[in-house]
Amino acid sequence: MPADFSLLRADFPVLHQTLAGGRPLVYLDNAATTHKPRAVIDALSRFYERDNSNVHRGLHALSMRATDSYGAARARVAKFINAADPAEIIFTRGTTEGVNLVAQSWCAANLKPGDVVLLTEMEHHSNLVPWQLAAHRVGATLRFVPIVGDNAELGLDLDALDRLLTPQVKIFAFTHISNTLGVTNNVADLCARARRVGALTLVDAAQSAGHEPLDVRALGCDFLVFSGHKMAGPTGIGVLYGRRALLDTLPPWQGGGGMIANVDWQESTWKPAPERFEAGTPNVADAIGLHAAMDYLDTLGRPAIAAHDGTLASCAAVALAEIPGIRLLGPRPGSPRAGLVSFALKDAHAHDVVTFADQDGIALRGGHHCNQPLMRKLGLPSTVRASFYLYNTEAEIVTLAASLRRIQKFFGGA
Amino acid sequence: MSDFDDLYRDIILDHNRRPRNRRRLPTANRVVTADNPTCGDNCTVYLRVEGGRIAEISFEGSSCAISQASTSIMTSQLKGKTVAEAEAAFAKFKNVVTTGRAPEDEPEQAAFAGVHAFPARIKCATLGWHAALEALQQPDQPPPAS
Predict the structure, then answer these.
(1) Which among B4, B42, B124 has CB closest to A351?
(2) Kind and range of the H or E element at B54?
(3) Tell me: the pLDDT tens digits for B56-85?
(4) Tally of domains in chain A
(5) Which among A19, A349, A384 is the top mutation candidate for probing chain B, defined by the most B β-carbons within 10 Å of its own β-carbon?
(6) pTM
(7) What domains are defined for chain B?
(8) What pLDDT shows up at residue B94?
(9) Taking a C-beta distance cutoff of 8 angstroms, is the pair B98, B52 a contact?
(10) Which of B2, B40, B66 is the closest to A368 by Cβ?
C-alpha cells in the first residue's frame, strides 16, 4: 500500500495539464466518471495494436488471443466481486444497461399485474426509469423506501422498509452508495430483509465498485450492476452479475449473433449465460481495459482506496460546513460518508457555482444528479457535488473551500 | 475582462439579486412552464394578453443567475409588446447569446453577450424567453387557480 496516495497522480496522464489562466486541474467530478491510469490506456492500445480481432468464432491466431483476453477479463471480474463462476458475469455497456437487462428480461418472465417492484427514494434515474417501463408494461406497482431527515442525513427508513416488504414485492432494487447524498446502504442487511419475503435483490454498485471491496456472496444479492468508467476503466463497458441458477431461467433480452445455440427460420434456441445476454460483437477492447483497471485498483487495495476517499469526503464536509449559507446533504459533517459531498449555497445556484469554480480550475457537478424526485422531496432544484477518488488530495479541498467562499460572496453581494 | 466577468456582468447580478416582475399573476390568461432537463431548472411565465398585446407579464421558478436575470429583463422588455414585436425581440436576444455580438441600442440585451463563450449556458439564458413565446402562441386560458 502506498504511504502517499498523491504519488499515484503520476499514473494519470490527464491530471497533468493546466487550464486557462495557468490553473492546475482540480478534478472533483469522479462520481460522474473517473480518470484512467496509464496501465488502462496502455492495455487498450496494446489490444488494438497487437490482438484486435473478433471473438468466439475466429479460428486464427488473433481471434484466439482476443477470445482468451475477453474470457480472462470475465474471470477477473468474477474474482473482483467474489462471484462463484465467471458465467455469472455479463458484460454490458454500463450500469444503466445492466438494470435495463434485468428489468426487461426478468420482469417479462416473472412480473405480474399487482406485483410490486420496491425501490428507494435515493435511486439514480437509471435504477428507476427501467423499472417504470417494465412495471407499466405488465400493470405492476412501484413503491419506494423513504429517506429520513431533512437532508437525508439518516439514510433509509428501515422500519418503513420492513412494512413495505410484503409478499407482493417480487424484486427490491437499491443503490449501494447514493450518488447524490453520499449515503452508504448496508447491502447485506437490506438483502437479508428482502429474502425474508422471498423478494429478489438488485444492487446498484456504480458508486461503490471502484471504491471498496465487493463480495456478492457475502452480500447475498441476486443481481449487482456497475460501470467500468467510474472505477478507472474505459467508458462503454459495465457488468451485470446474476446468480447462475437465476440467469439460466431468464429469457434473452436482445437477439443476434453470439447468443444462439441453434437458429431455424421460425425458432431458435439460446446459449446459457453469459452468452445468452451478449448478442452481437461484444466490447472486447474495453473489457480488457476494465481488466487492467481492476488489477490497478487491487494493487493499491480497495480498503485503502475506500479509506482515502472517505477521509477526503469527511474533511471536505467539515470544511464546507463552515461556509455561511451552505446546506449539506447526506451524513452530518463528522459522520462517516462515502467519497462525495453534495451541497447547496444560499445565494448561488448550482450552475453558477460550477461555472465559477471552473474558472478556478475545479471540475464539479451541478444539477439534479439524475435524481429529480429526490431533489423535489428535499425542496432543492439542484445541488453542487464534489466527488473524490484515489488521486485527489487534501490540498484540493482547501482550493475548493476557498473558491466556494468567493462564490458565496460574489453572488450574495455586499 | 475574463470570460467569467463577461458572463456575470453587474446588470445580470443585479437582476439576479432583485428580479423584476417575479411573482404569480392571478389575472394571467396564458401560463407556460419551461423546463431545463439538464439541470432540473424551471421557469413559469404568466401573461395577460389583451387585444394582441402583452398587458402584464411576470414569472416564477428556480433557476441560475443567468436564467433569472434574462427572464427578469425579458419581462420588462416585453410588457406592452405585440406578438410580432416579442418574436423580433427574442430573435435579437438569441443572436446576442449565440454570436456574442452586442447591440448598441439594447444595453440590457447586450449584457448577455458573454453567454456565447459558455455554450452550455445558452439554454439558461433563453429558458424564460421560450416559455413566453410559447405562451403567446396559445389561446386564452382561464386565470390560474390560486
Answers:
(1) B124
(2) strand B53-60
(3) 999 999 889 999 999 999 999 999 999 999
(4) 2
(5) A349
(6) 0.93
(7) 3-137 (3.90.1010.10)
(8) 95
(9) no
(10) B40
